[in-house]
Amino acid sequence: MSTTATPPAPPKKVNRIGLEIATYKGSKSTLCAGCGHNAISERIIEAFYEMGVEPHRVAKLSGIGCSSKSPAYFLGTSHGFNAVHGRMPSIATGTMLANRTLFAIGVSGDGDTASIGIGQFVHLMRRNLPVIYIIEDNGVYGLTKGQFSATADIGSKLKTGVINDLPPIDTCALAIQLGATYVARSFSGDKRQLLALLEGAVAHRGTSMLDVISPCVTFNDHEGSTKSYSYVKDHDEPLADISFVPFFQDIAVDYEPGTATEITLHDGSRMILKKLGEDYDPTKKVEALRVLTEAHDKGEVVTGLFFVDTKRESFLDQLNVVDEPLATLPESRVRPPKQVLDEVMAELQ
Predict the structure, then answer these.
(1) How far apart are CA 83 and CA 152, in angstroms?
(2) Phi, psi at residue 4, to the nearest 5°?
(3) With contact defined as beta carbons under 8 Å apart, do 110 and 149 qualify?
(4) Where does the pLDDT of residue 14 fall: very low under 50, low under 70, confident under 90, or very high at 90 and above?
């Protein structure tokens, strides 16, 4: 009687730190089928897996809205905090001040950011806190029946026929003006571009702000909407063809001299921006604002990396925060002794 040996199972695919991609997934999504937010979550899973980020070192932060449910759908073994409406930046700041060894990623929406949370967004952008801030931008309030948000374009039409007559807030232009050091826009349907921008954000050490156009299939994916899949696809104008080379894969990139810009990020990773049209320099703040302004006037949706600054100190470095997590320091190191307090009081008398 002959027996046939069972062939060994193929080895499971793991990343550079030995983890399978399943480790980076979260709960099953409860968002509408086809929602662009789900595509963004999938790219976040890919980016953190390919970059080899340890999930237990990640802090996921959000506010209120469809977008703020998204952190439940990726990195299920990470830390998480769902804040109140528009207040995620405060929680992100406190998180990174308490433990600078964590990796912070905040997911917000156009309502959570540009309306009730605009004040907190402004101060987060100007501080250059080490955080990835993703705006899942659909131009409406998806949880409250699809009213216009502050990013909706003039002339955009709701399914009910209502026309928006208020000018939009361009979160990318605002972030650049305020001091964010990595600012980009992408489309949830552009897998390659969004993944490269997310990986670049992971490698950056400062405030990375990504505005991702993410059509709402329930309330804002119809004719007349400027945030619909068809409108964005027809009006998308990529600044450059983006390639990302992580620091642990120092491979040659095929491009002609003089036709691309190479940017080295904080961890040694490189972003290669191969120009498609004009010779664009993402290190020039004025140039970035010009491109955004002209695109708005033309009704175009410009996507890509608008601005990057790898030289400015992060908020934690500016504060001279010690290397050890403040949350783990003993009371003797964080609480001034009575003698110091007495001296302070004496000086005020």
Answers:
(1) 24
(2) -105, 125
(3) yes
(4) very high
pLDDT score for 70: 95
What span, in angstroms and rounded, lies between the C-alpha atoms of 81 and 95? 10
Rounded distance, CA 255 to CA 296, Å? 30
Residue 168, pLDDT > 80, answer yes
- Identify the residue whose tokens are 């705006």: 135
196 — phi, psi (to 5°)?
Answer: -65, -40
Burial bucket for residue 29 (CB in 10 Å: 0-12, 13-18, 19+): middle
* pLDDT score of 275: 74
Specify whether the CB–CB gap between 227 and 152 falls below 8 A. yes
- Domains of the chain (ranges; CATH) run 21-318 (3.40.50.970)
Instruction: Give me the count of residues in the chain.
Output: 349
With a CB cutoff of 8 Å and minimum separation 6, the contacts of 19 are: 49, 52, 55
What percentage of the chain has pLDDT greater than the value 70? 95
The DSSP bridge partners found for residue 264 are: 270
Do residues 186 and 212 lie in contact, with contact meaning Cβ atoms separated by under 8 Å?
Answer: yes
**Max Cα–Cα distance, the chain, nearest Å:** 100
